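Is this the right way to post structure tokens for a design question? Let me know if I should format differently. Anyway, here goes:
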């Protein structure tokens, strides 16, 4: 039996809007397959026994192949890198289906209930700054409650047959003021991202330990997308898991791997290039992107509703400078400081 946890981000490069970092946590029983019985070729069992890395994306995508698609789909639930499922101007539907169905599978009560609003989900993330907090809208936006309901039933049923369960799906939004503070504290924006991501890993693992004591597996497999050009993460992991001794298994350009804990409750974490190829990371990527896009809707609504003919922005550097220049007079009038709006790095 094992945990699989995926971590990914959206909005690392922009100057405007929040950085979103998300996690998905899955419980997998490698001794059971669809229809019962023992999986003779279990990837996870081999990993635990041999102590070597094996890709877990094939396992989960294969187990959930009756409901999950690696690409945009009308019939199945798409779980893939958010860059494959979302393009500006094409709507949020594919992202929204996956994220809301995922929340429904975890038991999140507001995820697909009629009448849920963006403000309800943002209450745990939104700063007091009006340019994010005053916006509200009904969810879902580009799909329907009926579609989410039907897909949720199929997804939960397929997970049950595959001895797999999505336990947790969460996101952390880091707005410019906090992002700037963390960047100054840790020296670079890459180091800030690493601390935020590993901090979220710790949060998820603590939640698993507190809320799911009967689901403690002999192996926890965590995959994070690589953070820029960083290859060494041992010191960062030691900072967030000070009670553990972090073993370095490999450090290279393609992947850096670490482990800690006793053999009967071993934790392995891998920082790899194109981590979104693995299903838990892909769902985290979608969740981060969905929240980032909704936060930017709130941001643009605030300024565009007050400044005629102002075009919305996605917040990336070149266009962000155009947008910042256009809002600057009103920004001064409203006494909103640059540190609340602009990421310096």
């Amino acid at each position: 039996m094992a945990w699989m946890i995926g971590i990914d981000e959206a909005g690392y490069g922009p100057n405007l809007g929040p950085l979103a970092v998300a996690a998905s946590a899955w419980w997998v029983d490698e001794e059971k397959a669809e229809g019962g019985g023992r999986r003779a070729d279990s990837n996870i069992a081999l990993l635990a026994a041999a102590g070597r890395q094996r890709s877990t994306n094939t396992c989960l995508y294969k187990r959930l192949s009756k409901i999950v698609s690696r690409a945009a789909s009308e019939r199945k639930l798409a779980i893939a890198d958010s860059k494959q499922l979302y393009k500006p101007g094409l709507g949020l539907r594919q992202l929204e289906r996956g994220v809301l169905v995922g929340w429904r599978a975890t038991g999140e009560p507001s995820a697909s209930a009629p009448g849920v609003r963006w403000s309800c989900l943002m209450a745990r993330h939104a700063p007091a700054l009006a340019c994010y907090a005053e916006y509200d809208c009904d969810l879902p936006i580009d799909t329907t409650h009926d579609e989410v309901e039907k897909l949720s039933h199929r997804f939960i049923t397929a997970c049950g047959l595959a001895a797999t369960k999505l336990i947790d799906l969460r996101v952390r939004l880091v707005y410019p003021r906090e992002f700037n503070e963390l960047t100054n504290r840790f020296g670079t924006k890459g180091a800030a991202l690493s601390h935020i991501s590993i901090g979220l890993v710790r949060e998820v693992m603590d939640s698993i330990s507190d809320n799911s004591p009967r689901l403690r597996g002999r192996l926890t497999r965590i995959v994070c997308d690589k953070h820029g050009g960083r290859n060494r993460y041992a010191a960062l992991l030691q900072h967030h898991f000070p009670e553990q001794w972090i073993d370095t298994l490999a450090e290279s350009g393609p992947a850096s791997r670490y482990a800690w804990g006793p053999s009967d409750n071993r934790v392995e974490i891998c920082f790899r290039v194109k981590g979104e190829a693995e299903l838990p990371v892909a769902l985290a990527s979608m969740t981060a992107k969905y929240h980032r896009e909704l936060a930017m809707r709130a941001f643009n609504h605030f300024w565009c509703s007050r400044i005629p003919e102002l075009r919305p922005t996605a917040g990336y550097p070149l266009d962000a400078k155009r947008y910042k220049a256009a809002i600057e007079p009103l920004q001064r009038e409203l006494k909103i400081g640059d540190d609340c709006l602009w990421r310096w790095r």
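Format looks fine. Someone answered above. Worth noting: The first strand starts at residue 2 and ends at 10. The first helix runs from residue 43 to 50.
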